[in-house]
Write a structure and sequence with these properties.
97 residues, mainly beta, 7 strands, 8% helix, 37% strand, globular, binds zinc ion
């Protein structure tokens, strides 16, 4: 078995910072339950749970949970197959040496 080269997880800081600095309501999400695709702004958000719960407008399954404490937050995206986030023209990610 050959050893594949990899980068330290710290290299994700820049690319993830770029993603999470954008308005995610402009992102397109795919529901993990029914496969519907649409703007995250179309989710039905319930704020009377412990945190915010975003449900799919097609099948009503939970797509997003966000809980905020005074010093931290929990983001649960397991109901989303993917998020497509509009970004300015991409900078290529560094390649392993
Ligand atoms: Zn759905």
């Amino acid at each position: 078995m050959t050893e594949m080269s990899y980068l330290d997880g710290n290299m994700l800081d820049g690319p993830l910072r770029e993603l999470f600095a954008v308005d995610l309501s402009a992102a397109t999400g795919r529901c993990a339950s029914c496969g519907a695709t649409g703007p995250m702004a179309d989710l039905r958000v319930y704020a009377h749970a412990p945190g915010l719960v975003g449900r799919c407008p097609s099948c009503t399954e939970v797509m997003v949970r966000l809980v905020r404490a005074p010093d931290r937050a929990w983001l649960d995206l397991r109901g989303v197959t993917y998020l497509q986030v509009p970004l300015p023209t991409a900078q290529p990610f560094p390649r392993p040496v």
